[in-house]
Amino acid sequence: MTERISKGGPFILLIGAPGSGKSHWAKKHFPRQAIVSTDSLRGLVSGDPGNQDATPYAIRALDAVVLGRLHFRLPTVVDATNAEPAHRQKLLSMGYGQWCPPIAVVMDTPLDVCLARNARRPKSRRVPEAVVRDMHSRIRAEMPVESTWVPDGFSLGMWVIHGDGARVGGYVPTEYRNGRWLDAAREGGDGQFARFRGANTARFAYGAAQ
Question: Using CA atoms, how far apart are residues 12 and 48, in angstroms rounded to an integer?
Fold first, then answer.
């Protein structure tokens, strides 16, 4: 087993369909400046967070901000659907290239909840129902909560599970325990609990000195 020490982090990719609770989870556990959001960047470049025509510009801005934060060893949370494997792979490469092994936080929220939340959004931010259904299906197929493996390319997988108010913690490998966000996240709350899957081929200790 290879022992590697992260020089920064954590570097987290939120993964979930529109309406799955990604932004809420990020804001609960991280300061605003650590969150790199496609919605916010669409708003920055176009004046409207829901302007889908601004997405290509927002993605380019997101890549630049993420790379900069990783370079300066700052906690970085990518608040986007991250459903497209090609762009996800680009972000993974940035993380490993900067010695910040990426963590997947998968929002396992039922489709009907995602659709209901999406329907309540302002019209400009509402995603077509067919798109929500497609993303939800693809993410659920690629990263099922029942799996016993880490999502492909990630160093750690965490599933945030929509439930009935239970506060149940998941297992976190010892080498990750010096991150306060992990201890907070595993407490759950808001009808959610978390399951963790640790990497099998490499271990990383965030924030530790070489």
Answer: 25
Side-chain-side CA neighbours of residue 96 (13 Å)? 11
Which residues contact residue 204 at a Cβ distance below 8 angstroms, ignoring those fewer than 6 apart? 4, 5, 6, 101, 155, 175, 176
Flag the least confident range among 47-51, 128-132, 189-193.
189-193
Structure tokens at 128: 């077509």
Find the distance separating the first CA and the last CA of the chain, reported in whole Å.
17
Sole residue written with tokens 């530790």? 208
Tell me the domain boundaries of the chain: 2-205
Among 83, 82, 102, 84, smallest CA distance to 92 is for 102
* CATH T-level topology, domain 2-205: Rossmann fold (3.40.50)
Q: What pTM, to 2 d.p., does this model score?
A: 0.77
- Do 82 and 23 contact (CB within 8 A), yes or no? no
